[in-house]
């Protein structure tokens, strides 16, 4: 129905207002903030519109090779986008048109997919893309200090490039190297255990043309060449196989050797880890199920795989029998949920009719992206052939003739080692047609993602693998019936598949002799954070954190354990009261948490729990795909309230509102991302409510008594590329302003200065109360829209994560304007009044709003769907609860 354009209509008001009818006939008002500016252009000035004929011909040859890997050519879209990015260091109209032509898609379809992923650049990038991890774990170890130092040293801001075009600087999310924190990535190669000083030396070496070698991996190559490797093209560097898992990865095995630990004898099912819990002695290669063999043979050498029955003799079990081995062993998924792996395999339809007659697929989820989780990536670096062997066995068991390893794109060394391992397996006859004379055919493809945490969810991963935006699917049907290309599909985690060869080799009884009755076997525990010897510890399920900390040297000297995560950032927090909880699925679940990925992040008493949880909340808000209301809107408002608590504008009601919103998300989101965002919020308030109250009553973070409301000012760029200070006209803030700002003393929690090994100086991290007058700014309030490929939305391609258009930036207030904004009696003192829309507060000087994570037309669709649900009465509890809890976003009212 067309409305007349009167002054009160939605078309003429600055804040849209639309009236609909609810299920009982009451009026339902949906009020949104002003729509963000979303330019339709996907170009920057001077971007090529077409390729020269010789470039076009060369790219067509590469594209033909890439497309030929996949049963459906659309699956080649992500690799092709990597390929064309390698031409100009960013996506150009010419590159997008090339992808559309090769795959028979429209330009809109290609742009829609490219806009979803953060690794695709929309503006010129330097020869070296330098990323500093500033998620919670690296931040407490000094990541914030490194990032600030590099900004000052290079004279550029986040996602900006030096004048000579050499270095582009950005802050990134967790890159699965938490045992080496803080980490700097250069063209997605690891530089571990960095300090501000070493990071400055690193970028200086890049600018002088003598780059340092990565900690793990081959020598650096230019960013454009990196993109070609991500497309799956061969790495021509002669030393491409260098770089294994690293010393910290094998820390648990070193401890095992030092303590004379051997693999337990069969039937000793419950033997304690203090005597024989670490599986595998580096002296006895045959007893090492996962990480041990690299101690004896070259981890990149196929001979390690040839020694095992699955490869040496070909698949020795008939189709369907391998999953019974799995069921008998009790192996549970190692990706987080702990679902029985053999049971999952048994869901694959049997027979030759219906779904069973379709091709079967095996997909390995190697998209390890959750903050704190760092076991799969070092495992693949250590023993890539063990994973390949597990894939061969698993594919044979489920009758799959095509398998994929979906590996996270931001870890180039892993991608390179997997590609080499797969190439060696093909050359040796263990992949391809008629494997080892068995008559079994298997094609294996290593597929690089493009930067989207949501793709760790199995159905979102399938959509991404099919060349689409990575968004979770509605289930049922489940992947076992209708997965990849609508065919029966098994999706397993890296560690799960890598465990299969050891079970086949040593037998079910051997495997069940470790762990507990319901959680048998060994696993990898990742210890990181404030621990003396971080690393990967291979142990039977059921070991306790107290025992693991004993082997790891305990919490760092002079400090005590405050809180920890049993399974990464998405699991409820635990405290020092839970040191003796068995780390298996039942034991951790009994105390209200989840074993998850077994990522044990250790935090001592110097860490502000509110600050740590807020940074995780920012991450989940940034990574939300936006498909469902509870997650999309809930994470947005969680972060807003955390911001208020951090800056001294919070109230006691805000603490209860955090619980209310979290309850609206937990169990009501479309996938587990929403649960992961809500769990640490609720558990932290449960255990540390007094710390939240201190933020309210103390006017800000009690860990920063010298300047409780300070917040670092960020210099942004307007759409014309000029520097812009919040609150000032475009062009009046330049690099000099940034350098002056950065010269004042900075103390982030986790400043590593004074230590050469990259670990924090305890003197810096003493409780703030012991250092009166010391000014310590809170954790960097990074606008998540600026992460990875920020600053690109104003070049025309809107990402789900938002961008850096100055009119829409900021999940935070900037600089002094925060302290001199709206008065306490204005609506901004509490959750914003519905009349203010989504700006919070709208009248505060210097505040800029980040763009929505969802394109405007998609958000309008979500609003219409919410209206429809309310009109028809089919709204689920999550929708209705969120309508009541988040009245600034969706408000129900009666006239």
Polypeptide structure, described:
The protein is an alpha/beta fold and 895 residues long. It has 5 domains: 15-35 and 608-714 and 797-895, de novo design (two linked rop proteins), CATH 1.20.1440; 53-114, Orthogonal Bundle (Arc Repressor Mutant, subunit A); 128-230, Glutaredoxin (3-Layer(aba) Sandwich), CATH 3.40.30.10; 297-512, 3-Layer(aba) Sandwich (Rossmann fold), CATH 3.40.50.11540; 522-599, Ubiquitin-like (UB roll), CATH 3.10.20.600. 34% of the residues lie in helices and 10% in strands. Helix 17 (412-427) links the parallel strand 9 and strand 10. The chain is globular and about 65 Å long.
């Amino acid at each position: 129905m067309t409305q007349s354009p009167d002054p009160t209509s939605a078309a003429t008001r600055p804040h849209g207002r639309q009236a609909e009818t609810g299920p009982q006939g009451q009026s339902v008002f949906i009020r949104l903030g002003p729509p963000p500016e979303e330019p339709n252009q996907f170009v920057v000035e001077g971007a090529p519109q077409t390729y020269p004929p010789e470039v076009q011909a060369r790219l067509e040859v590469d594209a033909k090779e890439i497309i030929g890997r996949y049963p459906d050519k659309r699956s080649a879209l992500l690799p092709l986008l990597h390929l064309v990015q390698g031409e100009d260091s960013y996506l150009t109209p010419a590159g997008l048109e090339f992808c559309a032509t090769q795959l028979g898609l429209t330009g809109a379809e290609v742009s829609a997919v490219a806009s979803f992923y953060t690794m695709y650049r929309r503006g010129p990038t330097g020869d070296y893309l330098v990323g500093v991890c500033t998620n919670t774990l690296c931040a407490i170890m000094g990541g914030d200090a490194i990032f600030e130092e590099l900004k000052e040293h290079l004279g550029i801001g986040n996602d900006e490039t030096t004048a000579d075009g050499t270095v582009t600087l950005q802050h990134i999310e967790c890159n699965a190297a938490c045992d080496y924190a803080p980490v700097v990535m250069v063209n997605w190669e690891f530089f571990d255990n960095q300090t501000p000083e070493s990071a400055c030396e690193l970028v200086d070496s890049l600018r002088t043309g003598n780059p340092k070698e990565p900690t793990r991996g081959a020598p650096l190559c230019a960013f454009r060449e990196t993109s070609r490797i991500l497309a799956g093209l061969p790495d021509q560097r002669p030393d491409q196989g260098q770089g294994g898992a690293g010393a910290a990865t094998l820390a648990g095995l070193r401890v095992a050797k030092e303590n004379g630990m051997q693999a337990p004898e069969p039937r000793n099912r419950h033997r304690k880890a203090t005597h024989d819990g670490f599986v595998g002695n580096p002296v006895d290669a045959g007893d090492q199920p996962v990480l041990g063999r690299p101690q004896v043979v070259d981890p990149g050498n196929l001979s390690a795989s040839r020694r095992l029955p699955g490869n040496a003799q070909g698949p020795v079990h008939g189709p369907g029998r391998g999953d019974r081995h799995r069921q008998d062993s009790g192996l549970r998924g190692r990706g987080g949920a702990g679902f029985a792996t053999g049971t999952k395999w048994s869901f694959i339809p049997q027979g030759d009719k219906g779904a069973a007659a379709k091709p079967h697929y095996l997909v390995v989820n190697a998209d390890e992206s959750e903050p704190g989780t760092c076991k799969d990536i070092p495992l693949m670096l250590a023993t890539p052939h063990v994973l390949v062997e597990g894939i061969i066995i698993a594919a044979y068991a489920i009758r799959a003739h095509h398998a994929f390893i979906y590996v996270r794109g931001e870890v180039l060394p892993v991608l390179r080692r997997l590609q080499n391992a797969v190439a060696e397996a093909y050359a040796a006859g263990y992949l391809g047609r008629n494997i080892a004379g068995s008559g079994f055919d298997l094609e294996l493809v290593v597929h690089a993602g493009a930067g989207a945490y949501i793709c760790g969810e199995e159905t979102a991963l399938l959509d991404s693998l099919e060349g689409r935006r990575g968004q979770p699917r509605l289930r049922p049907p489940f992947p076992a019936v209708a997965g990849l290309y609508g065919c029966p599909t098994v999706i397993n985690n890296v560690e799960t598949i890598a465990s299969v060869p050891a079970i086949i080799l040593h037998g079910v009884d051997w495997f069940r002799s470790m762990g507990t009755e319901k959680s048998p076997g060994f696993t990898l525990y990742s210890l990181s954070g404030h621990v003396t010897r971080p690393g990967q510890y291979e142990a039977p399920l059921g070991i306790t954190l107290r025992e693991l900390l004993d082997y790891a040297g305990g919490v760092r000297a002079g400090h005590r354990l405050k809180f920890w995560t049993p399974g990464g950032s998405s699991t409820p927090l635990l405290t020092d009261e839970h040191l003796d909880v068995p780390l298996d699925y039942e034991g951790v679940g009994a105390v209200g948490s989840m074993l998850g990925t077994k990522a044990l992040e250790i935090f001592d008493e110097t860490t502000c729990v509110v600050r740590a949880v807020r940074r995780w909340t920012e991450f989940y808000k940034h990574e939300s795909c936006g498909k469902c209301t509870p997650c999309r809107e809930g994470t947005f408002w969680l972060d807003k309230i955390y911001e208020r608590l951090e800056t001294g504008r919070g109230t006691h009601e805000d603490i209860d509102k955090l619980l209310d919103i979290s309850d609206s998300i937990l169990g009501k989101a479309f996938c587990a991302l929403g649960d992961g965002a809500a769990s640490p919020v609720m558990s932290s308030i449960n255990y540390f409510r007094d710390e939240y109250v201190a933020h309210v009553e103390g006017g800000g973070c009690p860990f920063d008594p010298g300047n409780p409301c300070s917040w670092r000012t960020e210099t942004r760029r307007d759409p014309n590329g000029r520097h812009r200070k919040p609150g000032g006209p475009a062009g009046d803030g330049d690099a000099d302003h940034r350098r002056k700002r950065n010269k004042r003393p900075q103390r982030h929690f986790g400043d590593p200065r004074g230590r050469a090994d990259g670990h924090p100086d305890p003197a810096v991290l003493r409780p703030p109360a012991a250092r009166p007058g010391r000014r310590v700014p809170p954790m960097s309030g990074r606008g998540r829209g600026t992460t990875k490929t920020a600053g690109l939305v104003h070049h025309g391609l809107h990402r789900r994560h938002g961008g850096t258009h100055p009119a829409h930036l900021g999940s935070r207030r900037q600089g002094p304007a925060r302290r001199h904004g709206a008065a306490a009696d204005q609506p901004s003192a509490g959750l914003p009044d519905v009349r203010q829309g989504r700006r919070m507060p709208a009248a505060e000087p210097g505040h800029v709003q980040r763009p929505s994570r969802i394109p405007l037309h998609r958000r309008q669709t979500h609003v219409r769907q919410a209206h429809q649900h309310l009109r028809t009465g089919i709204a689920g509890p999550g929708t209705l609860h969120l309508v009541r809890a988040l009245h600034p976003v969706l408000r129900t009212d009666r006239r």
